[in-house]
Amino acid sequence: MKKMILASLLLASSLFATLKIDTTYATLGAVTQEIGGDLVEVHVLGSSKYDPHFIVPKPSLLSKLRRADLLIINGGGLEVGWLPPLIRSANNRKIQPGAKGFLDMSHFINMINKPTSVSRAFGDIHAQGNPHYVTDPHQVLVMAKVIAKKLAQIDPSHAQSYQHNLEKFLKKWNAYLKEFDAKMSQCSTKKVVQYHELYNYFLKRYGIVSVGNIEPLPGIAPSSKHTLALIGTVKENGVKKILQDVYHDKKAAEFIAAKTGAKVVVVPHDVGSVKAADTLEDFYNTIAKSICK
Q: Between the CA of residue 224 and those of 95, 151, 230, 261, what are the distances in Å?
């Protein structure tokens, strides 16, 4: 009798066990939570307060990876500087590249800014293209569909629930995009300067032109010569906004602003990177407000 009770308890616990999912960044985590609902336990590995290229590989991240059923990465080379050693050390067969529990979202994204050649002389470039696709709210639809399909593959017993969550979310997000796109139509003639090319997908989506970057090359700090040249570009193009992320030094942006009259605005690059961007909707609303206001 005791064995039967124990077996029943073990069966019940397995039926109601949540999938443990790690995502490398917060926007991926937010979309995953929407689709997984109560059936998943989502952990975000990289803090959105810091440079996504250089997340500190803490022991706590290793413990999360060891027990994960699924690992969802941004891809496009964004995690190459910190994630591979952690995956190897975790020794979790489920989430190794190529395994069922490993999902590289960039494989499903139409990547832009692909370099014609790759060389360190061009700075810290990504061979697969610009990896910062999450700044475009339309990519959320792609991410949601891919995640729903993967969850159903990992956990087929709840496939119907994931599909239901997906359909509900797509209806909500399409309604949000309709309103969001209408508001963004007023910003299509704007010109901006970025520190790093974090917002190219958003700018391309809404017809906003970036006339230059504070970085002379990706990952390279601005020189005096480059900064002075950029000041001339800002004046010539009538740029009013300098898009600054939360983790790069603001001195160069503030110097350019002082010389040109442009305004420095801190723009989130991921859900939670600024206080006003803790949800998916608030994340994109804050980007729009920063650029268009």
A: 45, 50, 10, 19
